[in-house]
Specification:
The chain is 52% helix and 16% strand. By secondary structure, it is of the alpha+beta class. The chain is globular, with a radius of gyration of 16 Å. It holds the Pfam family DUF501. InterPro entries: DUF501.
Length: 173
């Protein structure tokens, strides 16, 4: 079960996230999704981390999901998806819509102060035009982890495909 939360992490969740990531977390604005036990699955990240643009809005933190998606990625699925994007105009349009929704959400989550900082540092173009996971070419697939993280928090056609083809969601307790 996935529950969208979008709440600041508490101390217990921060400890779990540090364990999941293998390091102290930085740049987290919220826990965007948890499982039925309240364990963080997806983190919502700040647009600027350590004075640099961080175009990955949703970060997959769940170890089970990361392992499962890495296994799928290693099987060559990205090439298969990119071929489908070239051949299936409806799938490509849905993929572009996923990118647009991600970019719009990233911008909408920013506070006025964050937007001013983004503009001051000249990162507006990066954060207004780079898609899921910071990808520039919306006809390519870079990382299934960021696609799936977006899927758990929004509308992502690649994440939907991963669940339909591989039942990724079933790896959760």
């Amino acid at each position: 079960m996935v529950i969208q939360t979008d709440q600041a992490p508490d101390q217990h969740q921060l400890a779990l996230i540090a364990e999941q990531l293998g390091r102290a977390p930085r740049g987290i604005e919220a826990v965007a999704a948890v499982d039925g036990n309240g364990t963080p699955l997806v983190l919502r990240m700040a647009p600027i981390v350590d004075s640099k643009p961080f175009p990955t809005l949703y970060w997959l933190s769940c170890e089970r999901l990361k392992i499962e998606i890495s296994r799928i990625e290693a099987s060559g699925v990205i090439k298969q998806l990119e071929t489908r994007l070239q051949e299936d105009a409806d799938f490509l349009a849905a993929y572009h819509a996923s990118h647009r929704a991600y970019v719009d959400a990233r911008w909408e989550y920013m506070s006025a102060a964050q937007r001013q900082e983004v503009e001051r540092l000249a990162y507006t173009e990066i954060l207004r035009e780079r898609g899921i996971g910071g990808i520039a070419n919306w006809d390519q697939v870079r990382c299934l982890h960021t696609q799936y993280a977006h899927h758990l928090c929004g509308n992502n056609v690649i994440g939907q495909w991963l669940d339909a083809e591989f039942n990724v969601i079933d790896c959760l307790p």
